[in-house]
Amino acid sequence: MDNTHESVDSATTEDQGPLNRQDLTDRSPGDSSGTTPEHLVLPGEPELEAAAVALHDLTGAQPELLGPAPAARKPHPAAAVQPDAEIGPTGRPWPKLPPPEPPSSHGPAMIVAMCNQKGGVGKTTSTINLGAALVETGRTVLLVDFDPQGSLSVGLGVNPHTLEVSIYNLLLGRNVSPDEVIAKTEVEGLDILPSNIDLSAAEVQLVSEVAREQTLLRVLEKVRDRYDVILIDCAPSLGLLTINALTAADKVIMPLECEFFALRGIALLTDTISKVQDRLNPSLEILGILGTMYDPRTLHSREVLERVVQAFGETVFHTVIRRTVKFPETSVAGEPITTYASASPGAEAYRSLAREVLARCHAA
Ligand SMILES: Nc1ncnc2c1ncn2[C@@H]1O[C@H](COP(=O)(O)OP(=O)(O)OP(=O)(O)O)[C@@H](O)[C@H]1O
Ligand SMILES: [Mg+2]
Q1: pTM of this prediction?
Q2: What contacts 221, CB < 8 A, 6 or more positions away?
Q3: All domains of the chain in start order, with CATH
């Protein structure tokens, strides 16, 4: 697991990777002269190109690796753009997204996997907070902790060590019903299927199961009608558990840290998604790429985001999650940012993401 993020103080911009420090200080935040940063060769660049091509094959989106500024691109059909709209952090005009209507009835759920095999990119944080933001729109949401680390469970106040049954028992136990495992959270409408270290054994034990890749899907089918959205928090790996998550999912969200090494491995991830689409789940779609831990004060963060938008175009969500110490604080508090710091920019960002997610799903 990659834990490079842990060396970065979330409240400062001091240590943003092994970039030439001069690059970060040369230009002020408002300076747009770095829109084509040829001087900066990102280590994931060849991979980024490969991933953009793979994504093109998957979604039909046109990669424009060395193309014009992102603002010149066609807007996502899900969102009407006002002519005088302000430019968002991705360099594109902010779309006009109406507040989502509460659904008239619940279910069957759309299943979304939060997936990136790189560690510490904000998968768990995004699963919890997107889930909580969707609940605020009147949706019922089930969060699936599909990582043996159990971070999602901890982040919602569930102690993984004291669980008598967890998602592991649903995957491999014959006589366990989802109701025995599903736990309510402090947020009404937000339920969780918790996990703990037992789940790591499932990776090995599932190998001998018939239709092993569909095991999670079989579990989720039993509860799908009760929820509007099911979000799966994947582990930082592309092993059998993640393949199960991608097989169960209708859509994938790829959180991508706006940081030096973030682009590495993206080609491998898009390749895996493409294989799952070919062999196991033809209806799987990439819902979007989510920029996380964005720090607009650093040129580096802005450049990484710009490269990602150049490569992946409209697949990138307009909403970008900024780096703030509030998120680690919410993990300690065991609640989503939407309740812990309801008026904070972080909470607003996940509400904005929820609107984009719903708009994209309805446009699909
Ligand atoms: N926007 C953010 N700003 C600052 N810190 C953040 C942000 N998002 C997440 N974090 C923190 O970064 C760490 C990693 O985040 P998170 O656990 O969500 O990543 P992950 O991709 O799920 O990691 P893993 O791959 O280990 O499961 C956590 O301590 C979290 O609180
Ligand atoms: Mg996680």
Answers
A1: 0.84
A2: none
A3: 101-287+322-363 (3.40.50.300)
